[in-house]
Task: inverse folding
């Protein structure tokens, strides 16, 4: 049971979708303005998001929630993928810190 009302849950899902779309848009706009997915602007955004802000943690959490909103999971997967594309440093950080599958304890708690 969630301590949130159905209306509050709906608002949270809408806000989460909007935040994920914004992250995707930022990477897309930066890549398109420079014409390359590995432009210096995109690399800097990837570095800040992964190294300084640890975005991989909440994105991995969204991905591991079986009962979560499916659109949020898709957006989270796309954003996490975009944050490591063509960037060896961020890819290494994510591969070291995000398990390929959640622990059995984590799965049973959801």
Result:
């Amino acid at each position: 049971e969630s301590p949130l009302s159905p209306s509050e849950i709906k608002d949270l899902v809408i806000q989460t979708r909007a935040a994920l779309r914004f992250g995707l848009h930022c990477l897309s706009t930066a890549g398109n303005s420079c014409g390359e997915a590995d432009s210096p602007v995109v690399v800097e955004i990837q570095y800040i998001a992964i190294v300084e802000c640890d975005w991989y943690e909440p994105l991995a959490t969204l991905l591991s929630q079986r009962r979560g909103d499916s659109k949020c999971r898709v957006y989270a997967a796309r954003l996490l993928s975009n944050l490591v594309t063509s960037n060896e440093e961020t890819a290494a950080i994510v591969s070291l810190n995000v398990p390929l599958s959640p622990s059995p304890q984590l799965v049973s708690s959801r």
In short: Residues 59 and 76 are 5 Å apart (CA to CA). The chain has a mean pLDDT of 85. Residues 6-34 form the longest helix (29 residues).
